[in-house]
Amino acid sequence: MTSETESIGQNESAQDAGRKSDIQVSDTKPNVSPALSVPKVSPTKTHCEITCKTEKNWWDKAKPFVEIAGIILLFVYTLYTIKMYCANRDAANAAKSAADTAHDALVLGQRPWIKIKHRIVKPLNFEFVGAAGPAATMTVEDTIENVGNGVALNVVSWEDVIPLDSNMATTSARNRQDQWCDANKRFDPKSPTQLNGYSLFPKDPLIQDSGIGPLMSTVRKAVENNTANMSFLHKGSDPNPLAGKVAFAMVGCIVYRSPLDPDGTRPYMTGFLYHLGEPDESGGIQPFVIPKGTAEKLRLVKFPDGDFAY
Fold first, then answer.
1. How far apart are CA 306 and CA 310, in angstroms?
2. pTM summary value
3. CB–CB of 144/157 below 8 Å?
4. Tens digit of pLDDT for each residue in 140-157?
């Protein structure tokens, strides 16, 4: 079978070889079609779904843990920031407190302290007539001493004799004291008309005389109030021996500052209050006098609540 096939093929080849080719080759360079480009084959839909689904499933599982970790880190950072802020604040407060303590210690150690002593030079007289009219006057000697370590600046002092209230209280006298002393805690250092005061060095006392006393119109008004309101001090049908009489107190203060205090301020004050009275044998005093002539027996009597200093 094989031999027959091969013989047939050979005969046909021989016959074709003897024929002339009917095809004339006119172009020695035949047209050759360019090679076709092979398009890239994109992944199949099934493959993409499998890959994307795998990545998405991984992120969905990890995302909550990542968010929780971020929240925890943010919380820790916030706590650390708050801790640092509190530490810085406490350090600043401690530094400020230490500086304030040192400043206060310096001020306290170097500030002036003024004390004052009084002595009657001329007793209370009810017959003086001045520019403002009749007045009761008394002259006292003031011994003003700085017992502190620093110089006292812008020192000013004031004192006056004030009638007691009809109930023997010193309310009116203390109100007058507060009025003057509080008004002079501040001053204008540039004012040409305002008294700026003087300087007082430590252990160098100043001694001066001061004439003081109320107008007689004020004294007469106090006598009228006493006569009307002091019946509780006298019992019986006899005339009230206190009628027409009046009692007095002497009040005053000194205000000043140290070189460490701002100019225009007087933060320090020494205040005083005396009762005027005639000492008796029992150890008490007789404060009432008739406002005529000269009350030569009156003395300055200090009460426990009379003095203060700061």
1. 14
2. 0.67
3. yes
4. 999 999 999 999 999 999
